[in-house]
C-alpha cells in the first residue's frame, strides 16, 4: 500500500486558514463541483488538497491541471482512513477540514466556523458544518431536496433559499465537513486504520479526541453544505465499524454519541464528563458479550 501512494503536487499554505482535504475515488464530476463551490463561495483563503484514489476516470489528469490544488495519488482505492492520513504531509494550515467530494459548499460557509473558533479561544474542539440532504431523518441535518444527483441539482434554488435553511447549532460534531486543530489530529494519530475503509472512523476520531480532553463538539447551523450522499460508500466493501468501536472502547457508538457528545441536542459551552448509570454500564457489557458470540 505504501508504495502505491505518490505525491503529485505540494502547495504553499502561508496565509491559508484551513487545509481542506477531500478524498475522491473516481468521482470527478462531483469533485469538480465541490472544488468550484469552495473557490467561489469561501470568504477566506484555504489550502485545497485532494487524495486521488485510482483516478482512472480522468481525476488524476484534472488534478494535475489545477494550479491551486495539492494532491497525492493512490494507485488503488486505499479507503478513507489511509487517504486522510496520507494527506497529512501536504497540510500546511493550522486547521484541518475534511470534506466529502459529493458536497457543495454554500456561500460564506467558512465564516461561522472561523468565528466560533475565535470565540472558543483554545484548541480543544472539533466543529462541523451542517449538511443539507435531500432525504432522511437526522437531528443534526437539514432535510431539503435540491436534487439527488448532478443532473437534477437545483443550484440557483438552493442559493436563493439559503437563509431559510439556516438552523440552530447542535451538539455532537462528528461528520464532515469538520474542522479541528492539526495538533489535535496529530496527537490522536489521525484516523485509526482498524476502521478501514472508513465506516465508524468518525465516532472513533471523536472518542480519541475525548480521551485527550477535547470537550467542544459543536455543529454550526449557519455553516451549510449540500450533500448528495453516499456516492462512495455505496461502492465499497463495508467494514463492521459498529462492532470494532464496541470492542475497542467497551461501549457502543450510540452510547458515546448520546451520553458524551449529546448528539443533536442544544450545544453547551463545554460538554460535561459523562457517567453512565449502573444499568447503562450493564447494558454495554451485555452488548459486548453478545457481539463476541455473533
Explain how this protein is built.
- The chain has 294 residues and is α/β, with parallel strands linked by helices.
- The protein has a single domain (2-292), classed as Spore Coat Polysaccharide Biosynthesis Protein SpsA, Chain A, CATH 3.90.550.10.
- It is built from eleven helices and eleven strands.
- It has helices at 28-41, 59-65, 79-86, 110-120, 155-160, 162-165, 182-188, 201-211, 241-249, 253-260, 278-292, and strands at residues 5-9, 18-25, 47-53, 69-74, 95-98, 103-105, 125-133, 142-143, 170-171, 178-181, 216-227.
Give a quick set of tags describing it.
294 residues; alpha/beta; Spore Coat Polysaccharide Biosynthesis Protein SpsA, Chain A
What does this entry show, briefly?
With 294 residues, this protein is an alpha/beta fold. The chain has helices at 28-41, 59-65, 79-86, 110-120, 155-160, 162-165, 182-188, 201-211, 241-249, 253-260, 278-292; strands at 5-9, 18-25, 47-53, 69-74, 95-98, 103-105, 125-133, 142-143, 170-171, 178-181, 216-227. It has 11 helices and 11 strands.
Rounded mean pLDDT is 91
How large is the share of residues in beta strands? 15-25%
**CATH topology label:** Spore Coat Polysaccharide Biosynthesis Protein SpsA, Chain A
Elements, N to C (H/E):
EEHEHEHEEHEEHHEEHHEHHH
Cα end-to-end separation: 31 Å
Describe the largest sheet: 11 strands, mixed
Q: Tell me the structural class.
A: alpha/beta
Form type = globular
The first-level CATH class name:
Alpha Beta
What is the strand tally? 11
Q: Tell me the CATH superfamily.
A: Spore Coat Polysaccharide Biosynthesis Protein SpsA, Chain A
Name given to the CATH architecture: Alpha-Beta Complex
Amino acid at each position: 500500500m505504501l508504495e502505491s501512494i505518490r505525491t503529485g503536487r505540494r502547495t504553499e499554505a502561508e496565509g491559508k486558514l484551513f487545509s481542506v482535504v477531500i478524498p475522491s475515488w473516481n468521482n470527478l464530476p462531483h469533485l469538480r463541483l465541490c472544488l468550484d463551490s469552495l473557490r467561489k463561495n469561501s470568504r477566506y483563503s484555504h489550502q485545497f488538497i485532494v487524495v486521488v484514489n485510482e483516478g482512472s476516470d480522468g481525476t488524476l489528469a484534472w488534478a494535475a491541471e489545477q494550479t491551486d490544488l495539492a494532491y497525492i495519488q493512490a494507485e488503488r482505492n486505499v479507503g478513507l482512513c489511509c487517504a486522510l492520513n496520507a494527506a497529512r504531509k501536504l497540510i500546511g494550515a493550522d486547521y484541518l477540514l475534511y470534506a466529502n467530494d459529493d458536497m457543495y459548499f454554500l456561500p460564506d460557509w467558512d465564516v461561522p466556523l472561523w468565528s466560533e473558533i475565535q470565540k472558543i479561544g483554545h484548541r480543544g474542539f472539533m466543529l462541523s458544518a451542517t449538511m443539507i440532504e435531500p432525504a432522511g431523518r437526522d437531528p443534526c441535518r437539514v432535510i431539503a431536496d435540491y436534487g439527488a444527483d448532478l443532473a437534477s441539482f437545483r443550484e440557483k434554488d438552493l442559493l436563493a433559499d439559503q437563509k431559510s435553511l439556516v438552523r440552530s447549532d447542535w451538539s455532537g460534531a462528528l461528520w464532515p465537513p469538520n474542522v479541528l486543530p492539526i495538533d489535535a489530529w496529530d496527537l490522536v494519530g489521525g484516523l485509526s486504520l482498524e476502521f478501514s475503509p472508513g465506516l465508524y472512523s468518525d465516532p472513533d476520531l471523536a472518542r480519541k479526541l475525548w480521551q485527550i480532553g477535547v470537550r467542544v463538539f459543536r455543529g454550526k447551523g449557519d455553516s451549510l453544505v449540500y450533500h448528495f450522499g453516499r456516492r462512495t460508500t455505496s461502492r465499497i466493501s463495508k467494514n463492521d465499524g459498529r462492532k470494532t468501536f464496541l470492542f475497542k472502547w467497551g461501549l457502543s457508538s450510540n452510547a458515546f454519541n448520546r451520553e458524551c457528545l449529546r448528539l443533536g441536542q442544544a450545544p453547551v459551552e463545554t460538554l460535561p464528563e459523562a457517567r453512565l448509570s449502573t444499568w447503562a454500564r450493564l447494558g454495554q457489557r451485555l452488548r459486548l458479550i453478545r457481539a463476541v458470540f455473533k
